[in-house]
Amino acid sequence: MLKSKTWQLTAILMLISDWSQCIKSQECTVDPPENIGIDDPGHLGPLYIHWTAPASLTNLTACSMRYHLEYFNTYQSRWTVIRTVRTWYRAQFDLEKEVRVRISTLLKGACTNGTELKSPFTEMVLPPNNTGPVGSRVQGFGCVFYQKEFMECTWETGLEEPTQSQYSLYFWHREMEQAEECPQYIHSNGVRTGCKFTEESLSEFSDFNICINSSSPEVVLRSAFFSLQIQNYVKPAAIETVHLEASPDRRLQVQWDLPNERIPRHCLEYEVEAREEGVGGQPLLQRNVTNEMTLTSLSMDGARRKCFRVRSRMHHYCADRGFWSDWSHWSCHSGNRFLHTEIISWCISLNSIHRFACLFSSMHISPPVYTVDVGSLQTLRLESLKLIFQPLHKFLVTKL
Predict the structure, then answer these.
(1) In terms of Cα–Cα distance, which of 299, 331, 327, 303 is closest to 313?
(2) pTM for the complete prediction?
(3) Domain-embedded: residue 88
(4) How far is CA 398 from the centre of its chain?
(5) Beta-sheet pairing, 46-52 with 34-39
(6) For 149-164, how does the pLDDT look when each residue is reduced to its tens digit (9 = 90+)?
(7) Which residues contact 244 (CB under 8 A, 6 or more apart)?
(8) Same domain, 276 and 349
(9) 108: left (phi over 0), alpha (psi -120 to 50) or beta
(10) Does residue 148 form part of some domain?
(11) Is 214 a member of any domain?
């Protein structure tokens, strides 16, 4: 028994010695993975990549083994690298393009003297199943996720679309077991040109995969595949009301109310457009983007009329991109309101002074009795009114 154990220990030491020698001379090679395969589970994009360990390393215990996987990401036009100890991986692919996968074995441990060895790649390429004329593929595809309540995806027929053909849309996301057909088609002149998804059929922050194919008794037509992150296609509802409030320093406070929708307020940013009549009647436009629901206008020039409108979209904190909402209606404020307020104040003051002057001139105080020259009194009243109205005249000239 002791002799047998001694022989096994000697064999292991010889194997390690042989590995050390081949590492030093760089003559040692590691076999790549075997039995590589790619399966399509029918989820309109995700593919299941699997392989087995090389037979030459099946019983190896003195080293750890893992795998270096690379696949070409056609969405980003670059290779994606994954290192894993598993013998499978799931990745998203554009099924209209070539699928390219390559895998190598990584070996490290006592059998390699602590150095990590890498095998040559074993590669697999799957051509796309692009049957049918190129012109039969749908074009102009786009989706809008309205107020995070429902989504509509629309398309246009292909340039070589034969008569009596009909489009069908299928979709899948991670919360579904299998792909399903569009829950509600949108029609134009009897032809399917879109699909409406209810909130229950949607999933955010997940690959939302879509396939549009068509059937025709005349010819096989080309399928189209799309993958979306639907939180990047949100379009908020239009802002309904814009409030304008003038301050004593001739600034305008612009405020607006949000419609009742499912988008959190902190996920929105706003664009405020100001329009003011400029020189020669030409409008002057100014736009400001803010995260707040209020904006202070820095200038209100005299009698000029100033109008505002507001729109919103998803902030980059909550989505990579999004659609602007429709503009609100214009809400306007006339600069003459400031002028009218000051004129009214002047008129009230003048009216009070005039009444006092008239009352004073008609008073008869006795005793004692004083003799007053009526002509001098009238002159005094005119001079007083002149002193009062001269500043008002200058004010009106500068404002008007």
Answers:
(1) 327
(2) 0.72
(3) yes
(4) 49
(5) antiparallel
(6) 999 999 998 887 777 7
(7) 252, 253, 254, 308, 331, 332, 333
(8) no
(9) beta
(10) yes
(11) yes
